[in-house]
Amino acid sequence: MHKLFSKLLTKATRPAGDVDTAVLGDLVSRAFEEADQDRRRTDRSIRLMVDELEQLTRGLEKTVQQRTLELDRRERELRAQSGRFEAAVNHMSQGLVMFDNEGRVVVCNQRYLDMYKLTPDQVRPGCTMMDLLLQRRDSGTFEGDPTKGSTQLMEDLKTGRLASRIIDLPDGRAISIVGRNTPDGGWIATHEDITERRRAERKVTQLKPDEAPLIAAE
After folding, report:
1. Residue from 155, 147, 148, 107 nearest 131 by CA
2. What are the helix and strand counts (H, E) for the chain?
3. 118-169 pLDDT, tens per residue?
4. CA distances, 160 to each of 70, 101, 137, 157 (Å)
């Protein structure tokens, strides 16, 4: 401010060395007007920036709200789909267990747990084939070496050699297992208790020819 006034004072000084107060007053007035105009222009620029920031903020808030609503909707849909899938899987008459490409459990239904006398805590997502066989050995539904058994089973499943097989459990039940590879390199296996079916088939084969049930001609 002092520098500005010094410049104005120099401009208002006559050659004789005295100050023309009228000129000085006019210069000072103009300087204040220019300063006021600059201030108003600065204020307008600041207001415009504030308005733009407010509009941007409102736009971002609206976008965030829309994205949040969309995410909530998708999450509800996924939960609903997951619930339907879980209900469908757990109402299957067959036991089902799915493995990823590293041989770890992805999903297992209740029928599978009941079939091998296991609990959900024993067969959690992420456990391995050997973990399953160890649990089955403890529950009395598997005989043999879990390490060797899991290695052989995984190799057979991955190479497709175990498309279908029947195993006999220590308690006398017969289980039909069908394994299929999945596109991601894992596999899925269904387990069906065919004990009664096998018993019925054996009874039929043991009947004498004259004891066989009559079958009506078509």
Report:
1. 147
2. 6, 5
3. 999 999 999 998 899 999 999 999 988 888 888 887 777 666 666 688 889 9
4. 42, 14, 25, 5
* Alpha carbon of residue 86 to chain centroid: 16
pLDDT attached to residue 62 = 87
Sketch the domain layout of the chain as residue ranges.
Answer: 1-91, 93-204
pLDDT recorded at residue 24 = 66
CA angle 50, 53, 56 (to 5 degrees): 150
CA–CA dist 178, 95 (Å, integer): 10
Considering only CA atoms, give the Rg of the chain. Answer: 43
Which strands form 105-108's sheet, in the order they lie side by side?
A: 105-108, 95-99, 187-193, 174-181, 164-168
pLDDT tens digits for range 1-23: 566 666 766 766 767 767 667 76
N-to-C CA span, the chain = 117
Determine the topology of domain 93-204 in CATH: Beta-Lactamase (3.30.450)
What stretches of 91-125 show up as alpha helix (H) in DSSP? 110-115
Structure tokens belonging to residue 136: 């089955």
Q: What per-residue confidence (pLDDT) applies to 215?
A: 42
Instruction: Note the pLDDT tens digit of each residue in 35-70.
Output: 778 888 888 888 888 888 888 888 888 888 888 888
CA–CA gap between residue 213 and residue 218 (Å, rounded):
15
Distance, in Å, from the CA atom of 97 to the CA atom of 107, rounded to the nearest integer, reads 6
